[in-house]
Amino acid sequence: MLNEKWKNIVAKLDFALQPIVNIKSGKLFAVEALLRNYYEAGAFQTIFDLFDRAFEEEILYQLDIELRRKALEKFTLINIKDIHLFYNLDNRLLYMPDFTGGNTSAILDSLLLDKKIITFELSERGTIKDSSAISSMVKRYKQE
Predict the structure, then answer these.
(1) Going from the N-terminus, what domains does the chain have, and what CATH number goes with each?
(2) Angle, alpha carbons 54-59-137 (nearest 5°)
(3) Which end of the chain, N or C, is less packed with Cβ atoms under 10 Å?
(4) What is the value of pTM for the model shown?
């Protein structure tokens, strides 16, 4: 659970949903959730500063879950059928002591969203300490 400081930061953060268009058909294929208002939320100079601080405080996974929920809630406001959401994951969340599975499925279920709508992009940020951990995470997400 996030502490009050981080809850206030999350409350001030927002997402821009950038369109991804199929160039053959010209139709909207997906949107990518891009984090906004990070400076206003906590005077972070860059998005990387925000995630680095969360990593240092060992709350990166908790933060990501709240941001994932927020991005998916905003996604539900788009009234266009059969589009996907691209969401960026910081690979360092694997190294958080509270990292667990099943949270994305629970959020999707609570919002009545099909599990096939979300595509995760792994950030290059941070060092991958164990490539098998990334492989395990990808396998878990595919299964869910």
Answers:
(1) 4-143 (3.20.20.450)
(2) 105
(3) N
(4) 0.86
